[in-house]
Design a protein that fits this description.
It contains 3 helices and 6 strands. The protein is α+β, with helices and mostly antiparallel strands. It has a single domain, classed as Nuclear Transport Factor 2, Chain: A, CATH 3.10.450.50.
Length: about 120
């Protein structure tokens, strides 16, 4: 699979809420870093994702949305070593969950994603 295919398949997993798409596009060394959950290895990603989906379903309270997640403002940069860095804005409709993702991709697949949440401070 080409790097662009890894990126597309990985993004499709988020848009559709299908962790199987994620797994098809990730390298063996893949990790996902969520500041609320910590650094999650590939072997633990599907259980992390299942817990996220349960939280989203609870917040949405049965209300349906076209996508599990919307991804916008995608920027890519090819690095000198052949890897690609992808930055995006993500939002889960019907929830307060939104933020940025910084994704590293190589020929082997998606190597990592580090996310940050956007939030408003009170004051």
């Amino acid at each position: 699979m080409a790097i662009s295919d890894h990126i597309g398949t990985y993004a499709q997993g988020w848009v559709t809420g299908d962790s199987g798409c994620h797994m098809k596009s990730t390298a063996d060394s893949f990790y996902f870093d969520d500041p609320n959950a910590g650094k999650i290895a590939k072997a633990d990603f599907e259980s992390y994702f299942a817990a996220l989906k349960l939280a989203v379903d609870e917040i949405r309270a049965g209300k349906a949305f076209d996508n599990f997640m919307d991804i916008t403002e995608v920027v890519t940069k090819e690095e000198d070593d052949g890897t690609v860095t992808v930055w995006c804005w993500w939002a889960i409709a019907g929830t307060p969950f939104e933020g940025t993702g910084l994704i590293k991709v190589a020929d082997a697949g998606v190597l990592s994603e580090v996310i940050c949440y956007y939030g408003k401070t009170v004051g």
